Amino acid sequence: MKLALHWQILIALLFAVVMGVWTGAETQLLGVSWLAIYTFVGTLFLNALKMIVVPLVVSAIITGVANVGSQGGFGRLGAKTVGYYVFTSFIAIMIGLVLVNVIEPGVSGEAAPVLESNEAVMSAVAGKSAGDVVDIFLRMIPVNVVDAAAQGQMLGLIFFSLLFGFFMTRIEGPAKETLNHFWQGIFDVMMLITAWVMKFAPLGVFGLVAASVAKTGLDQFGNLAWFFMTVVLALATHMLVVMPLLLRFVGKVRNPWLHFQAMAPALLTAFSTSSSSSTLPITLNALEKRAGVSNRVSSFVLPLGATVNMDGTALYECVAAVFIAQLFGVPLDFSTQLLIVVIALTTSIGVAGIPSASLVAISIILVAVGLPAEAIGLLLVVDRLLDMMRTMVNIFSDSVGAVIIARSEGEDQVLVSKHF
Questions:
Q1: Which fold has domain 5-419?
Q2: d(Cα 206, Cα 97) in Å, to the nearest integer?
């Protein structure tokens, strides 16, 4: 019987802690330091994640938008859907930002900051200002989309992909079918490649965590416990407080808790797979058969949501970036935190619905504000469980959006007890 991937990662994580403590940063094997071996393995895994992100995100967005647009998607229903997604993602990010600043998980332990302060890092972050926020919007329209892909400028690629997918629906004839098959084929292949890369996640986790432990010891785990609790509290606030309030006062649902019962199969699937895309068929079925939302609304809102609506991911990205800055002892002023909010909101749109895809998005935020991307290795210690939780929040937000939009479209039979 093959061991499930999350158990493999957990075993690799524990083994990495043991090896990191045992070898330290100086011990060598045949003249090569163990630290260099750990770093090599971890870097290979990070490079593999970065390798797949551009074609995966571009193909996911183009196919998603094209599928929605082919159903007459960018009218009234489209405006409501996009408006809901932007609003809830922004609320989620602000919840995370407030809690991470109040709890300060990166400086709450006795050993904080656990990583050595770096003058270059501090100067890089200090150099960020409100002008960088403007620059973010300028980069949304790339001068050269190929160069944007080469440079990993995701905002420009997301904007181009949205445009490309939309205007694919405006052409007719064989060319339209060819493009649809082409991009769908790329997306299918990239999903297979991603699944293959994730098979090596235990090795990647081992390398990144062992290198981190070898350099810093076990002092970091106290701070990671605070980080874990901060993220869980933020996710719970968004899912158990904000979402029911939206159902009650915007969706006019008398008993919002009925929706939790209706979506239970999808929530459990999301928790076990950590994949919005894999959970999509279950979410569709639960929303239509148990919540009573029409296929017209669910088939429009959910596929788009699986691509662009990532409340839990956006929240996590924001908390993670501020947490890492706190670990480095780097103060973040208002303009820099505003920059993090904007990037978290925009990059969460392009994060594919697959396990741990947000790690790449977090690296984009870290680089944008002047922090080293390698610091995400620390997050892998608790990332798997948090990934399962934030995926639940992602798909639950999608389903809440579908209910609210269905109610606004006059569907009175949504969330009545007879459906389940």
A1: Proton glutamate symport protein (1.10.3860)
A2: 30
